[in-house]
Fold this sequence. Notes:
The chain is an all-alpha fold. Helices cover 73% and strands 0% of the residues.
Amino acid sequence: MTATIRLVPQYILAVALLVFTGYPFLYMVATSFKTQEQFFMDPFSLFTSIQFSNYILAFENGLVAYFFNSVIVTSISVALTVFIAALASYPLSRLKFRWNKPVFLLLVSGMMLPIHSTLIPIFILTRNAGLSDSLPALIGPYVAFSLPISIFILTQFMSELPREVEEAAEIDGCGHMRMFWNVILPMLTPAVATIVIYNFIHIWTEFIFALVLISSPENMTLPLGMQKFYGELTVNVPALMAALTLASLPILTVYFMAQEKIVTGLTGGAVK
């Protein structure tokens, strides 16, 4: 009984955090089902009516095209990030060579680089490469700025993997490539899930690089398209809420599919 009483403050804090973080999303969804008249009459009510006209309006204003552009850019960027980071982390964590730590520190130091300070050089480089106003123009910067944190997480997690499994595979004749693909990589699922979710959210919501590198409406990603969409529907708040609800669904889906692996991936290598 005493242990249960001690947990009461924790439950109260958990409920308070749930309300604090969940209410804005609940309000956004509820408002998306209102008409403009209902919103102005009672802006703070929840689920007083169910109207799908706002979602239809969102699709009619090009949300589908922006959505698929974001899916393409985010999927390719995340896949390349995981692939490159995993290949880089294997020698940094499992192989011993003279420049191991300096190379690791050099790669990880990219986390300290202010991303926005590279906007002009990246814009000039993209223009000179003939990639301006195209989806590939976004993939390069997204992958580059996602690699430092991804390499850090994978290297730390990989360093904690038991050496016995690797030694047994060496006895069976595994080389480094086969060791990586058949032994090490399957054990990295928690860390890979972590960097997939982290980078997916970051890339899906990225706005500044899309604003600088993309100009034509047909190549706009969802955050950039939402800004244009907001300009067209400044007064129609329920329609904006409908568009924001649709834009947030992929993030929530990816997170809930792999949320149980996040803590394991983030804490891997933190405790010796």
